[in-house]
Amino acid sequence: MPGENLSRDEARERAALLSVDGYDVSLDVRSAVGESQDEPRTFRSVTTIRFRCNEPGASSFADLIAPSVTAVTLNGKDLDPGEVFDGTRIALEDLAAENELVVDARCAYSRTGEGLHRFVDPEDGEVYLYTQYEPADSRRVFAGFEQPDLKAPFRFEVRAPEEWRVWSNGTGELADGVWRFAETKPISTYITCVVAGPYHYVTDSYSRTFPDGTTLDIPLGALCRKGLAPYFDADDVFLITKQGLDFFHDHFDYPYPFGKYDQAFVPEYNLGAMENPGLVTFREEYIFRGKVTQASYEARANVILHEMAHMWFGDLVTMVWWDDLWLKESFADFMGTFANVGATRFENAWTTFANRRKAWAYRADQLPSTHPITADIRDLQDAKLNFDGITYAKGASVLKQLVAYVGQEAFLEGARRYFKRNAYGNTRLGDLLSVLEETSGRDMSAWAGKWLQTAGVNSLTPQVLLDGDGRVAELAVVQEAAESHPELRPHRVAIGLYRLEDGELVRYARAEADVDGPRTVVADLAGADAPELVLVNDDDLTYCKIRFDETSLATLRGRLGSLTDPLARALCWSALWNLTRDALLPARDFVDLVLRFASRESDIGVLQMLQAWAESALVHYVAPQGRETTGRLLAEGALRELRQAAPGGEHQLAWARFFASTAADGPDIGLLQELLAGTATIDGLDVDQELRWAFLEPLAAHGVADESVLAAELARDDTASGKRHQVRCLAARPSAAVKAQAWAQVVESQALSNALVEATIAGFAQPSQRELLAPYAEKYFEVIARIWEDRSIQIGMDVVRGLYPSLQDRPETLEATDAWLTAHADAPPALRRLVLEARDDLARTLRGQECDAQAAGVPAS
């Protein structure tokens, strides 16, 4: 990987020297089908780049990662590929003012989801291709200048097998066996795209007439593998797409600029989705093979709208370098929810955002690797790791705070001016701040300094003083920050006062205030009746960790389920989970709250988040002595709720999946077996194929479903999805030989695709198998440096994160981690960051277990 890196300084130097007029890229992917003697299997890539150099005679380089280069021609002169190509770069000497570079290469198909990924469908043997480049993998497919600020128009042509169809960013036509695509607008290399294969393709159209009388017609398309066609609800995808286009046209006052709008759902995808203009790619898991809850449909809609927002924030206007990644990802993350609430049936999406999305941000912002939203990105490895909870969820949360700070219309007018001034160009932080200053009349530099250029999360705690009549004499908000990141920020917050009325906790008073500094008095609430619950950051206007005074916490312990407002409940649950992770609330207390009150949760997305948190509390934060009892209580509670849930409803499905994940003893395992066999039923519960696999994993992990059972299930579901499920279940079996095989498949071999690496890792680490996994703690530290050096960034990240021995939750594992960090002080910073993050999670685990043990009156271990 180090040879594939590109530093920010190198990118700056190249951008100062070169400007690009256009690319012609010709790919021949007919080699994707049939037998191949190549190792790796390759395809032909011929690239012509027209570019200018403002210092004639200077030297530079083009990027290309390929097994071989056949020919390189610069300004009509043939260069020796052996002399100018080192495997990752093509040296360019003595450049002219105007230049033409032609590179003829053999590039490799990918099995890691980076570059041009080749997938063979086990169901029918069909081959499917797609590209994925962010941040810098277009160089695995064609030669280019791989950095976001060297934009250019692209023309693609692709030779493919006769029975295939090919898609790219522009509209395409097949003539004489070649797919030729219309030239794109100036775009960055990382958002170019090619999808090819026998995909199932559905079309629709969108039309919009603007106030000036002009009409915009956008051809719509949606595609997936043929094997998923029976499950593909393209009508709903198109519905969300049209609602989103209407919403963004209403608010952005800039017509969609990229012609057509195709959306491809592709196999073995590393990301949720990618905003390639005119051809957005998604992971195919967004096509649901079985029954799912509305939370899954809401999540898919959010991703569709997130990627659509990128057409303006990121594709039309692009950051200069990855330091300002937030200029696209934070905005798209915010706009995804903003549009979901404003344009679709998912009117409560801000509740999901508060409960689920912010949890990702809070975790990331307390890691040792936390960073300002405008990060210091030294190179491409840094960039890859900064697609994180800070850039996405914290950035979106801060934008939500910004909207509260400057007003929604000022914010949107700033966006409109930003698009018009910078269309098809590149920007930095100051370009956006300047238009927001114009539209809001506020000094944005101070706000940016506090929110965008410092790291860490503040906590806000209410202080309530009552007078002799039982009324609020003074209510103040105390702001605190961690010692490592002591910045106190200005927060626009709402403070809600709640009391019990007719058995329900309802809000009877609310005030908005600007919290700034260590203590802020909220004068508007003086004289109010004494509250039973004070909710700081009511309505979720700012980004902070909510804390409670003693009275409020006692109220939640006894009455959390009585809170009538779904968003208020979600905020309280999130705050209680943060208290648990911070070792301020015993994990068993949190589990008890879930067991008592989760059944009253109306929002299915919040319920599923609570179930995930409860399971995480059991696995990581409950003291070891309490795991068995707590696990049994969770399984009993899940089964009770499963039986009581409305037949056929989404809450029943959520409890069924949670019961499977918590099943541990004989009767639970037996019931799962009977449900699979059909000898037991639960009224309304349809055990479809996806739910069958959810039941089989715990059976495999407890040694009940052996290899023959899993082979029989794969025969029943002989699909790509079924194969991933089977691989995960096979790795979950409680056998030393099984673990050794899984380890070897991931660590010692590169035979598995990215999706099967992910599935194997997921099955390998079973919480019930801590002793069986213990020998791999030492092995982990022996291999990760080699893994990072030998594998692609994506696979390296998957292995280093996924195989960290977090289940060996003992001080000795911390010591081993520290020893590795000390011995590898010169390891790549991105690798050290991953290990430091895993160490921090483990240290938090041990603190949580100690808190839980102290509350139970037992030793921590």
Main traits of this protein?
single chain, 861 residues, alpha+beta, eight-stranded mixed β-sheet, 20% strand
Characterization of this structure:
A hairpin with a 6-residue loop joins strand 8 (115-120) and strand 9 (127-132). The protein has 28 helices and 28 strands. The chain is an alpha+beta fold and 861 residues long. The protein has an eight-stranded mixed sheet. The protein has a five-stranded mixed sheet with strand order 15-16-17-19-18, with helices on one face. It has a four-stranded antiparallel sheet with strand order 8-9-14-11, with no helix packed on it. The model has no long low-confidence stretch (mean pLDDT 96). Helix 14 runs antiparallel to helix 15 and helix 25 runs antiparallel to helix 26.
Counted by DSSP, the helix tally is 28
Number of strands: 28
- Order of strands across the main sheet: 5-4-7-2-1-10-13-12
**Spatial extent as radius of gyration:** 28 Å
> Mean pLDDT, as a whole number?
96
**Helical percent range?**
40-55%
- Unreliable parts: none
The best one-word shape is: globular
Query: Which structural class best describes the helix and strand composition?
Result: alpha+beta
The main β sheet shows up as:
8 strands, mixed
How far do the termini sit from each other? 40 Å
What percentage of the residues does DSSP assign to strands (E)? Answer: 15-25%
